[in-house]
Design goal:
It contains five helices and three strands; from the N terminus they run αβαβαβαα. It has 111 residues and is an alpha/beta fold. Strands 1-2-3 form a three-stranded parallel sheet, with helices on one face. Helix 2 links the parallel strand 1 and strand 2. Helix 1 packs across helix 2, helix 2 packs across helix 3 and helix 4 crosses helix 5.
């Protein structure tokens, strides 16, 4: 786990009812999401884990990414996780991050 991740999980799970993990479908992001779920499972195995897959090209991409996480959790942690859903990629968010002023201009024109 990354520096401080174990302590952050310990603190967060003291009064948490569930853990919501948000990941993108890229392999590195799924690996990080699995690592987080593993640490959380070891610290608080009773807390349900829900997963939201963000920035997907399609619902199928989100389902495939979730299935990879669910398979790993089932096989290595002997636990199930729940799929909260998939959020589609929105190209305008990339524009907003690269050029916030242009994004604001577009919003003003649309109003």
């Amino acid at each position: 786990s990354g520096p401080g991740l174990d302590g952050a999980i310990r603190t967060a799970t003291i009064s948490a009812d569930r853990l919501v993990v948000v990941s993108t479908p890229e392999p590195a992001a799924l690996t990080g999401a699995y690592a987080l779920m593993k640490v959380a499972h070891l610290r608080a195995p009773e807390i349900p884990i829900d997963v939201l897959i963000n920035r997907c090209g399609s619902d199928a991409d989100g389902t495939t990414a979730f299935d990879k996480l669910a398979t790993a959790c089932d096989h290595f942690l002997n636990r199930s996780i729940r799929h909260l859903g998939t959020v589609a990629e929105d190209p305008s968010l990339g524009l907003a991050a690269r050029d916030p002023e242009q994004c604001l201009t577009m919003i003003r024109r649309a109003s």
